[in-house]
Amino acid sequence: MSKKNRRRAPQRPTVVFDFGGVLSAGHDPVPDIHALLGGDAGAVGEALWTERGDYDAGRTSPAEYWGAVARAAGVEELSAAEIDELQDADNRYFLRLEPDSRALLHDLARNDVRMALLSNASAAFGEAVRKADWFEAFTLAVISAEERTVKPEREIYEVLLDVLAHETGGVRLPSAVIFFDDRAENVEAARALGIDAHLWPRNGDPHPEGTEPGVSIARRVLAERGVPTD
Ligand SMILES: [Mg+2]
After folding, report:
1. What are the residue boundaries of the structural domains of the chain, listed by start?
2. What is the C-alpha separation between 9 and 136, in angstroms, rounded?
3. CATH number for the domain running over 3-26+96-224
4. pLDDT at res. 121
5. What does the pLDDT look like over 53-111, one tens digit per residue?
6. What residue ranges carry the coiled-coil annotation (predicted)?
7. 223 alpha carbon to ligand 1 midpoint, in Å?
């Protein structure tokens, strides 16, 4: 056997996506939630985002989270059906994929590129995302509420690297993980662990003349890394 053949083949890269603002078309479920709850839209929005951190970290239940959002709208009591309705509206909003992001997922899937999701999200959203038609192309999803740790905490990236290592015969190679996220602190935390992380300007935000949308940054980075997307 030649020396060349004995050398370990370079590990196939894994492409890891954040969800909100990267795969989702938008990042503002407040109008949809406000349409259900009524009350003051500003107060609903403030409660929805203020309470979201604990919900995404798995520290509060759907009843506690949606109860707090509803109280901000002046709704004191929610039935189990109403809690489900609010959660469904939130899931539906976020599960609307950006068409260009969806096209990228299709291209990667067609080329058998390993894909994973790393999302700060509730367990309820984790359940919904795994039922999405496109999720079949993903090898796994790391959902913050299920792991009780959120980006940019180091622990959630360790979980990601550990589960990916399990998929690749125990070899842990952060540099073979290409990660896209719309929050700079999440990108920096990933880079600190050696992950090949890149900022994806949030879908739905305006792209001033001359700036590159996230999907074209991703396509350029992937091409540079030799990841097929044709
Ligand atoms: Mg995001």
Report:
1. 3-26+96-224, 30-94
2. 27
3. 3.40.50.1000
4. 98
5. 999 999 999 999 999 999 999 999 999 999 999 999 999 999 999 999 999 999 999 99
6. none
7. 23
